Amino acid sequence: MRKHLLFREVNLRIHELTGPEGVMSGWRETLGEAVDYACECADLGCTAHVPLTRDKFAEIVENPDYYVVAPGHYPGYAEIIERELDYAVVMIRGDARVPARVP
Ligand SMILES: [Zn+2]
After folding, report:
1. Which of 10, 14, 48, 59 could form a disulfide with 70 if both were Cys (CB 3.0 to 4.6 A apart)?
2. How many CB atoms neighbour CB 78 within 10 A?
3. What pLDDT shows up at residue 56?
4. Ligand 1 mean position, distance from CA 68 (Å)
């Protein structure tokens, strides 16, 4: 599985846990407005966190080709959609998500 798909799963879980029904629903008092999501770049060793509001994350994942990454963590095959101070949104199309074949 490509790393951004794995970390998308992690982020969806974070999103669920910080939601009104989640065990971390009190996040606003401890974390402030933004939740720390995981960087969805291609680097398996990357442990960067990306501060986003829950609303912004929900907006990004509405498009299945959009991923959120830390600034500068752009996979070479990704197109940059939005660049902010704390995060960037990149587009990784379906065919790029398929691991390359070993020749
Ligand atoms: Zn990263």
Report:
1. 48
2. 23
3. 94
4. 9
Distance 91 CA to ligand 1 centre (A): 14
Instruction: For the chain, give every domain's residue range.
Output: 3-96
pTM of the model: 0.81
What H or E segment, with its residue span, contains residue 17? helix 3-17
Q: Which among 66, 80, 73 is positioned nearest to 44, based on CA atoms?
A: 73
Q: What's the pLDDT tens digit per position in 10-45? A: 999 999 998 888 877 776 656 667 899 999 998 888
Q: What angle do CA 69, 40, 44 make, to 5 degrees?
A: 120
Q: Count Cβ atoms below 10 Å from residue 10 Cβ, excluding itself.
A: 12
In angstroms, what is the span from residue 46 Cα to ligand 1's centroid?
5
Q: How far is the CA of 74 from the centre of ligand 1 (A)?
A: 8
Q: Calculate how far, in angstroms, residue 48's C-alpha sits from the geometric centre of ligand 1.
A: 6
